[in-house]
Automatic annotation (TrEMBL):
It comes from Crossiella cryophila. It holds the Pfam family FtsK_SpoIIIE. This is FtsK domain-containing protein. It comes from the Bacteria. Keywords: ATP-binding, Nucleotide-binding. The lineage of its organism: Bacteria, Bacillati, Actinomycetota, Actinomycetes, Pseudonocardiales.
Amino acid sequence: MTVGSTVDGQPVEVDLKPPSLGGIGTHGLLTGIAANVRLDLLHTLLGGLIGTHAPDTLQLVLVDGEDEHLFEPFHRAPHLADHALGQGRAHLVEALAATSATRRRLLREHGMRTLHDYDRARHYRPELPVLSPLVVVVHRLSLIHREHPELTALLARHCAVWRDHGVHLLVAEDRLVDLPAELDGYFGFELATGDHGAELRVPGREPVPFTPATPPEPTALLAGMPPPAGQWFAPPKSIDFGDLTSLASTEERGLQAELASRSSVLVGELLGPERGRSFQVPVQFGQVLVVGAERLGVPRVLCSFALGLALHRTPRELRIYLLDFNGSSLTGLAGLPHVRVALSGVDDSLRDKAKAELAGLIKEREELYHRCPTPEERAEAAAIAVIVHGWPDPDLHPELARVLPQLVLRGQAVGVHVVLGLHRWADLEPRLHGAFRHRLELTLDDPDSSPLPGRAPRLGPMRGRTSEGQTFAIAEPRYAGRDLVPEIAAAWPHPVQRLAALPYKVVYAELPGDARSHKLGLVEGSGLPFTLNTRHLACFGDPASGRSTLIKTFLRGLVALRSPEQARVVGVDYRRTWFNAYCEGMLLEYVRDPGKFETVMAEIRQSLDRRRTAEHGWQGPDLYLVIDDYDLLSTKSRHQLAPLLTEADKTGFHLVLAGRHLAQLDEVTKELDRTDTTVLALSGGLKTPTPVTRIITRPLPPGRAITRRGTTEETVQITWTE
């Protein structure tokens, strides 16, 4: 194409063919401090390419490092394959690598070395696919290099081979020295612009000064042009399992992927030079770690692993545990017949059951492998997949924080496969770094924190790289745009063994167990009633967590077990939430006014003093002081209450209190800490240790509580009482 004319009127032409074919070079530079002159010449170059080539014989990729409207006049050009701005540049590396690999494969398959050879062959073999030249125009590569050095690295790797494969690179910069050093030596010519003209510089020749031609008017240039041939191999926005495999449904195996593999799971496609090949992770031969920024799809990648595993094995062959310590992103897969339990940070109603079962997995599997050393003998035993989002907080989930490292370190040898998703490499315990054979990295918030070799590329959601440098796209956890979980569940006609969750509502009359026990709720795991076997009872929780319900349940059980001759109640209920509930015959006092509390406490002290000093021991009913909204008691009132606990076993005194979570122990709770007390921790938003048991609070459904007996934590659903 003509870019200008010399002083004597001779045209100055730029021919992008290799020198061996009469051109001046396949790659070129356009430099000049005067931005307007440089940009006009760049438009002249683009206009010349478009004006002298039909759309089916040339493709253009325009990349602007300044995010301005430099290439806007050419957006409607049918030659335009891509216009990369902003975040679009992150996908350009993969797209260029993919088209480079495609060209190399086509030439190799047909026995050609260069595009020139291929074009000549097409005259005799018109059935060969069209392979048009591709011109990549990059404005201000030096700016792009700062944010996407991987683009510069790709250009440096491919520039040499592109000379033979019909890919041309034109780079526009302010100055030659601004060009990244990695590209030195790849450019065949330079168009250097100044305030009063330009100069064509070709190594080994005299510079040619010239006056740049006037840029063409794009509207007139593009008028009447046909649509583009579309030879650009840009990456798809997203893929799902419908792009990876076909499905088949049988009564014996349910809905499964065709050609399913037992040793690896198909979860996506490879990108870059291997684009189009399936991305399979051999979970049978190593634990899997996924690390990436939360917004870029770590939870969805874990869901895709779970779905991929479910499509490769039946529920008899695979048991899945879903543990989400960072939200509830995995619970959408709870309906899969393979899922044994789905535990989330929002609802950990199966925490104790999951903890107990996972804690016994390694021992159970090691015993199985000892009894049945060959795979044939273990054919009936299901493999185990534990899919984990986030790492358990040792304060909130101490048992799971101890169990999971053992599953990672020892599980692989006995068929327990862990797929762990984290948002930072720093969240992984150092001792576990070497335990993950398969390490997949999505884009990180801090790319410099990556331990993988090379600089981490910035890719889109669900895309990343392996520790070996392969880039991949993970399939969305769907099939042809639809949710597969209901279909997989419906296609499995056999029984499903799933851990039963605690119900959100437990009716008092339906509680199992001995009618002589003081039942307060249902214990997770065992399914047995939670009974009160201590002198005192305390519960702490946020508003609407079930504190008053617990008081009502306690009183209902007390009335069922004891008569007014055996037990009497003094109630303190400033907000009147359980007025006269189930204890009319037992109620001595019902304190609704803080001013009356001191008078009632004086009467209680006198009564207990008489019991303490009785010569032959006291006789009469036990006294239950039941306080709701304990946190509303004044400091003076708590001072009066604390001494009653010291000899409660000798006076028949019982304290039942409920209130908000306390930040620290007071005089009363210090005494409870030393006495026979059951403490329940209801829902709490802050990581606050509950007095007496030191249980760390966490969000829980209404009526759900954590208690500690000995060294073991239990989850309880409090009985609902109207």
